[in-house]
Amino acid sequence: MDVVVYRARRITPVVSREVERLRRELPGCKVVLVAYQPHYKWREDSADEHFFGAEDLRSLLYEAKNAAVNWNNPTGHHDLPVLAYYLRNPSFDRYWVIEDDVRFSGPWSHLFEELSASGADLLMTAVQNFAENPGWYWWNSLLSPGTEVSQQHRVKGFGPFCRLSNPLLAAIDRRYRDGWGGHFELAWPVICLTSNLTLEDVGGNGSYTPPGRQGRLYANTPLSWSLFPGTFVFRPRFQEDGKSEFSKGVFNHPKLWHPVR
What we know:
Radius of gyration: 17 Å
Strand order of the largest sheet: 3-4-2-1-5-8-7-9
Distance between the termini: 30 Å
Shape: globular
Helix content: 10-25%
Structural class: alpha/beta
Largest sheet: 8 strands, mixed
Number of domains: 1
CATH class: Alpha Beta
């Protein structure tokens, strides 16, 4: 069974609306809300809502990873709440991670059906290797004690929407316990490839996108620091004006959008 981990900064009416939309459009998946705030103390108000604070995430046995975290603004370490949820719920086959400022301009079921045909252990957007984008800011964040990561395994992605297999999350947990760390958009792909697991791009125009998904599911400009222009970018923010489906009809095929506020 698959689970959708909807990662939120705080609980708002829009977050509640989007979670309900996912549940309505993905009846075959469990959908859970995972929220991080520095001063929370872990609680599970229901089986579908999980709240973590800095104290909870510091207790994970990831000494090197955690040493680099600014707990008030954990840029690059937004994988920690996902791992905390995984460790408490380790029995799902695949974990779809969706940030609260991601939208899909069509039924979520269509996107999941298309991507479910892929057996990749990691699906991300804007996947590139070092040679394709040597100027990416976070390359030097990787910690891999005792392991020289080859150029072919130095790969990064963009993480607001992604999917991880159970074996990959287990591998990430092991490596972090062994002292690995760094920005998760680099650490996840590197751990995936160095664990002999498989990586694909969700559907942009890069070299890691399989034939048939090229350019179908999002658009961006990978060599731009902001990934803009495109639909799935780091900046600028898009405004949705209260609509659940963002910019429907702009393209012939629905697209992923980020960040939508």
